[in-house]
Structures are given as C-alpha cells and as structure tokens.
Design a protein that fits this description.
4 helices, single chain
Length: about 120
C-alpha cells in the first residue's frame, strides 16, 4: 500500500517508481492466495445458507457435502493448471515485463497456497 501511494504521489512530480504495478500485483496475488487458503483451512469463510437454513439438518449436511465435493474438484483442477503454468514459465525462463525479474516463484507460491 505504501509503495502504491508513493507511486501516485511521485507521479505528480513526473517521477513514478519503476515497476510499481508489477510489485504490487505479485505481492497482492501472494496475500490473497495465502489469506484464502488460511481462511478455508480455519473454516472462517462466510457460508451463505439462506437456502439451506430451512432444510432439515440431514439434507443441509448432504448439500454441504456435495458443495465441498464440487469445490474440491474445481480447486484441484485450478491448482493443477496453475502448477502447469508455473512450470512452463520456469522452463522458458520468462521474466516480468518492466523489472525483468523471474516470477515463476510467485506463481508456484500461489499454487502452494491453493493446495492448503
């Protein structure tokens, strides 16, 4: 946040910080991925149960089980595809556009967070 704010202020004086967008994007991806993984692991996420709160307990559990199964399949596919993408970036040696830093570690870190 400090970096983004400093960049905005320095733009007024025509001296923006080079690569701010990349750094903020990489760090934002890490923070969001690890926060989502941590929240899911602790089961602190908000479950919208407007529909299921009126169901009998057994049916509500069945619907929750089905929802968790669907989410598990979906996020397993997402994790696999993010890993494939990260491995491809690693093999090709692709660098970020502005700062020319390797960024496959950020991709693989996000992948490891999604596998929590």
């Amino acid at each position: 946040m400090t970096l983004a704010t400093a960049n905005v202020v320095l733009r007024i004086f025509y001296a923006p910080i080079r690569g701010t967008y990349e750094i903020v994007s990489f760090l934002g991806a890490l923070v969001i991925a690890f926060a989502l993984g941590y929240t899911q692991k602790r089961k602190d996420n908000i479950i919208v149960d407007i529909l299921t709160e009126r169901f009998p307990e057994r049916l509500a559990r069945l619907v929750d089980t089905f929802a968790y199964l669907v989410m598990t399949i979906f996020f397993s596919i997402v994790t696999w595809q993010v890993f494939v993408w990260g491995a491809k970036i690693w093999r090709t040696g692709e660098l970020s556009e502005t700062l020319k830093v390797i960024y496959h570690p950020f991709i693989l870190a996000v992948d490891s967070a999604s596998g929590c």
